[in-house]
Amino acid sequence: MTYTPYVSPCPNASRSPLRPENDLVNRWTPPKKKPAGPTDVRRIVRLFRPYRGRLAVVGVLVGLSSLVSVASPFLLRAILDTAIPQGRTGLLALLALGMIATAVANGVFGVGQTLISTTVGQRVMHDLRTAVYGRLQRMSLAFFTRTRTGEVQSRIANDIGGMQATVTSTATSLVSNLTAVIASVVAMAALDWRLTVVSLLLLPVFVWVARKVGRERKKIATDRQKQMASMSAIITESLSVSGILLGRTMGRGESLTRTFSTESERLVDLEVRSNMQGRWRMAVIGIVMSAMPALLYWAAGLTSGHGGPAVSIGTLVAFVSLQQGLFRPTVSLLATGVQVQTSLALFQRIFEYLDLPVEITERPEPVRIDRVRGEIRFENVDFAYEADGEPTLRGIELTLPAGGSLAVVGATGSGKSTLSYLVPRLYDVTGGRVTIDGTDVRDLSFETLSTAVGVVSQETYLFHASVAENLRFAKPDATDAEIRAAAEAAQIHDHIVSLPDGYDTLVGERGYRFSGGEKQRLAIARTILRDPPVLILDEATSALDTRTEAAVQDAIDALSAGRTTITIAHRLSTVRDADQIAVLDAGRIVERGTHDELAAKDGRYAALLRRDTQLATTAP
Predict the structure, then answer these.
(1) Backbone phi, psi, residue 23, to 5°
(2) Beta-strand pair 376-383/453-457
(3) 593-603 in b/e burial notation, b at 16+ Cβ within 10 A?
(4) What pTM does this model have?
(5) Where is the composition biased (Polar residues) (predicted)?
(6) Cβ neighbours for 388, distance < 8 A, ≥ 6 positions apart
(7) What is the distance between the alpha carbons of residues 316 and 191, in angstroms, rounded to a whole number?
(8) Spacing of C-alpha 569 from chain mean position
């Protein structure tokens, strides 16, 4: 199979490479958090709505478990007060079997609760992860130029991961423990209301202490997640291939280790504070509740000693058993309350990302074009990165016929790459409009845009996967023959088949197993496979040596054939054959024409041309 280039209705192409400019923008910072309120809690509850059927089953299991648990102390009272004193062995055996049956039933109900609640919790976490990832996929390029990659990763991994215990067990724990507490209190009152009053005297104090501890831990949890995000950013940046190369060549390995150690020390302090915050107060609660049986025995003794109605041994033992059964769910409820308040900090961080405004959106009924010809127009285009910031582009007027070629040149920071990024809507114009075949790109469907416009930049990105998988990213259903044809057109096939694993060769992290020129040709092959009618070449060869540039330029020539091509370039030798050349300065077009026309003017383009010639003659 041979590669057939895309042929537009107006075949007339030229080609050239380029490199993206690094527009300076401020780092994204999240808005100030508002205190968690009822709205946040309602929003968390809504996460569980799709699974309310399963949660209803959990509720039934919890109710049955609580009823069975309460029955056990009454069986114990009957054993102590009736079966043993009266020597009724048959009744004793029946009551003992009943107690065993309650234990078995509780175990079965507990396994069912755990299975369903864990499944629901994990599904909720999956929904959150997917929602955050999907939201970030819709964010504009500007968001990612302002936000550290480690921060984004931390939100998805650490923050959502930190909520695991809350979303998998909290709902079940709340219902289970609350039901157990209510059932136990009712049963205790049925046995002896006076002992019940004694048992519950300090409960309001315990609840107040738990709420206070929860608020304190929530604040620490927020600081802890920020610190984890900071550490994730350091790891992502310094332990990537590029980071290791930079650290080694700059001799900063020890310095980076010290920086990481300092950040880790801060995390240690926050973890210790989080775990110890309110620990003594909660320990006092545990001690008091553990000492309650002694208080009950003492109260029962006083009642009998003053001529009051005596409490039977069976009743007292059954009551203490219930009281101890009340202790576990009560402490668990208090701990769950603390955990919920702590988790609110994590939910707020996740909701912060889910609430990010999506700057670039698709129209409700977008325009779809089956066959794009490739005519590009810039109509009085203005663009600024910030609403009240200095414009990067001003009053751009350009027309590029289908199949034509445009080269954009100028000094670094003049807005060349920004201009090209407006065509595929990586950014939206702030004034005027950009059209493809007469349709505003903002009215086109995302599918049409991604099919119509291909971008090859200096910053080639390859996944840590095989060569074939990287190429199929452009066209998942591509056949082996199509992949080979694209690689041949990009002049990289011979190198690929010379590798031991051929097209199954792993390219390594960010493609570091391949040279710069090889990576560029892989990127070109990937774009050839996509076969877009409009091509953006953003400094695709500027970082390559002369010999490699010539090979890559041949591949670019094959890619550009018959396509509408916009080339961003510093090296003017690559744009001489362009149909038209636009010279940008401070975001404005100051000159335009063919190479010969602009060179004869002896203006800005001619100055750039002399600079290139001087650099070429002085280069070693």
Answers:
(1) -70, 130
(2) unpaired
(3) bebeebbeeee
(4) 0.65
(5) 1-15
(6) none
(7) 9
(8) 34
